[in-house]
Every structure is written in structure tokens, then in C-alpha cells.
């Protein structure tokens, strides 16, 4: 089995990993969400506007509280005239600062992309010049997958407890980068006005 790191090999497991996402209320710790492993230990946390104070900026931290990803919504030069250029970019955090660009995705609510798959590009030479991953299905209903370019499922998002809107699960396939998957979910959470949004 080969590892497919985007953030780091440290976040790639040799077996399928079942993660639970628990949204935090916006009034507690500024919202966002925590990601739990099957032993109910926090393995990631995502912080948005409630903590950072800036809309359109997210930070993903590992279980020890170290910042690993900084994600920012960036508009193009013509942003004032068109929402078509709004993109989210994820950066590796090094020495407490965003440094190396890792991935980007276009806001699906811009232009006419509402019903099409959300495509994600990885900023590395060993990846394609187009898109590398895509989100299929409906994130709002917690019924979607993240697939690679060949159509292989990287991660599946689903409802774990139907009675609770604050819990859902993500199954990440062996070898894929869990931090990258959580970064994509953090962007989707913000785009659709969930726990990381102001």
C-alpha cells in the first residue's frame, strides 16, 4: 500500500480510519469542530471566525494543539465585479506561520458551479496541472465523498447519529492524508455556513 501525503506522511494510516466530527456551538470556544478517533481522543480541531476573528480564515490543529494548516478564502483581482474568482487556498504551517501552498478549491457557490462537483487542485509538481480530487454528493446532508482523479474514494462523509445535527462521521481510506481530508471538510463547513462561519 502506498501513502498519499498532502500535508504529511504522519497523517496517513495503513488502515481505514473512522473519524467522528463534533461541531462546537459558536458560543463555546468560538465554534468550529473537533475530530475524534474511535477511542474518542481529539486528533484534529478546526477553528474559524469565532477564534480568529476574521471571516474566511480557518486553522486546522493536530491533537496536541499545534497548527498544521492555515486556510484562507482569496478573491482575484476582479473580485469586486465577479464572485467567480473566489478560491480557498490551504497552506502548510511552519514555525507558526502559513508557508507552503498545499491545495486550492473554488467556492462552489460562485459562478455556475452550484450543481457540479467541487474540484481540488494540489500545489505540487508530482500532481496534475488541472484538478486532483473532487467532492461528490451533498455536504449539507452529510452524504458525500472525496474522490481522487481516478474515481477512487478517498473519504466518505455520512451521518452517524441521526438524532444529532452536531455529530457526523468521516471514513478515510488507507494511505490517504487525514489532515488534508479534514482541511477540505473545514472549507465545506465554512462555505455552507456551519460551525466555522461567523
Automatic annotation (TrEMBL):
Gene3D superfamilies: LURP1-related
Pfam families according to UniProt: LOR
Coiled-coil annotated spans: none
Family that this chain belongs to: Belongs to the LOR family.
Protein name: Tubby C-terminal domain-containing protein
Protein's organism: Asparagus officinalis
Taxonomic lineage from the root: Eukaryota, Viridiplantae, Streptophyta, Embryophyta, Tracheophyta
Amino acid at each position: 500500500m502506498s501513502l498519499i501525503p498532502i500535508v504529511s506522511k504522519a497523517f496517513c494510516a495503513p488502515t481505514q480510519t473512522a473519524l467522528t466530527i463534533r461541531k462546537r456551538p459558536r458560543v463555546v470556544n468560538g465554534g468550529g469542530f473537533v475530530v475524534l478517533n474511535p477511542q474518542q481522543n481529539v486528533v484534529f480541531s478546526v477553528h474559524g471566525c469565532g477564534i480568529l476573528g476574521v471571516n474566511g480564515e480557518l486553522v486546522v490543529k493536530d491533537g496536541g494543539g499545534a497548527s498544521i494548516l492555515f486556510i484562507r478564502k482569496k478573491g482575484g483581482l476582479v473580485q469586486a465585479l465577479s464572485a467567480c474568482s473566489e478560491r480557498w487556498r490551504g497552506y502548510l504551517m511552519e514555525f507558526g506561520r502559513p508557508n507552503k501552498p498545499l491545495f486550492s478549491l473554488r467556492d462552489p457557490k460562485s459562478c455556475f458551479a452550484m450543481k457540479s462537483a467541487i474540484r481540488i487542485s494540489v500545489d505540487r509538481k508530482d500532481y496534475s496541472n488541472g484538478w486532483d480530487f473532487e467532492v461528490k454528493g451533498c455536504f449539507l446532508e452529510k452524504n458525500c465523498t472525496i474522490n481522487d482523479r481516478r474515481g477512487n474514494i478517498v473519504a466518505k462523509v455520512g451521518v452517524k447519529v441521526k438524532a444529532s445535527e452536531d455529530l457526523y462521521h468521516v471514513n478515510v481510506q488507507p494511505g490517504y492524508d487525514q489532515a488534508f481530508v479534514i482541511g477540505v471538510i473545514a472549507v465545506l463547513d465554512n462555505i455552507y455556513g456551519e460551525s466555522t462561519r461567523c
